[in-house]
Amino acid sequence: MSHQYQAVVWNRQKRIYDLTLLVGLLVFFGVWIGGHLAMRPNVTAEAMLIRGLAVAAFLLLHVILSIGPLCRLDTRFLPLLYNRRHLGVTMFLLAAAHGAFAIVQFHGFSDLNPLVSLLSTNSNLSDVAEFPFQPLGLFALLILFLMAATSHDFWLANLSAPVWKALHMGVYVAYVLIVAHVALGVLQSETDPALAAIVALGMAWVLGLHAVSALHDARDESRLTPDLSSDPDWVNAGPIRSMPDGRARMVVVAGERVAIFRNGESVTAVSAVCQHQNGPLGEGCVIDGLITCPWHGYQYEPRNGRSPPPFTETIPTFDLKTDGENVFVRAVPNQPGTPTTPLSWSDAKL
């Protein structure tokens, strides 16, 4: 983490991430141009560029939407998540370049303002074959612009995590608009059914992956929810002796995920949701005595749920007790940043 807002702080991981992205785009455009020259030698350079930028942005959007659910299903995908915003900004730049070239190509020589021409040239909303697909792409681009413009942590801190998260959930609205833009535009002018199949396959992949991830999370919720019949005020989180050192045991308390961390001899409990981007803090680990979120490395003190100075983020804490064998979590959370008394792992396991 950094307590100073800087444009970009590149480290070795970011350089590798961005270099891989750049190489991937260069390979894509190399294949795209080579394929067009071999299969469609009569296509104009403008059309090849406009379509290439659109396809690159569309493919990258599918990658971006796939990273989140893949990480929920398998933590080995987490390295892709750390700098996902780099992918998002790159995707927006590709989409913006596509939109700019398309407006110049198709609306730049009209007597009307290009944007006015784009929005007013076709107003036939009753015919699918003539539906004005270009405004759909423009509206999607505006959403992507808002997301790219607020991608820095400065906006996350000033908008607050819930507002920032809600704003960036707009990517799903943009995705629907872009799919409609593609379906009503390119697919109307192309007779090859493979294009329709590819777009449908992409949608099925994104929707299916999110559905599988949601089912996976639902099973986790069911598995983590304990039996409250014995004492509704205290939740039995299971044997303390089986707790892994440096990791958390997860349990759902009053509808909220709680992470019970063991750090050597000390056992504490905090909310399993990171304040940065609502990341899965309970899937993180203890590094240098601090609970560390697996998404972006945000850290918290295990005893009080406070980020170390000069950071100010806090998360709720939970009181613990033991009967000498099991750990019990109080069902009511403490206020964020409230100090708690840790359990002693060595005493409780006896």
Shape: elongated
Q: Decide which structural class fits the backbone.
A: alpha+beta
Mean pLDDT: 84
**Termini gap:** 39 Å
Helix content: 40-55%
Report the oligomer. Answer: single chain
Structure description:
- By secondary structure, the chain is α+β, with helices and mostly antiparallel strands.
- Helices cover 51% and strands 13% of the residues.
- Strands 2, 3, 4, 8 and 11 form a five-stranded antiparallel beta sheet that branches. A three-stranded antiparallel beta sheet has the order 1-10-9, with no helix packed on it.
- A hairpin with a 2-residue loop joins strand 5 and strand 6.
Features:
350 residues; alpha+beta; five-stranded antiparallel β-sheet; three-stranded antiparallel β-sheet; 12 helices; 51% helix; elongated; disordered N terminus
Summarize the structure.
The chain is an alpha+beta fold and 350 residues long.
Q: Secondary-structure blueprint of this entry?
A:
Layout: H1 12-39, H2 45-73, H3 78-82, H4 84-107, H5 114-120, H6 134-149, H7 153-159, H8 161-168, H9 171-184, H10 186-189, H11 193-224, E1 234-239, E2 248-253, E3 256-263, E4 266-271, E5 285-287, E6 290-292, E7 299-300, E8 317-318, E9 320-322, E10 326-330, E11 343-344, H12 345-348
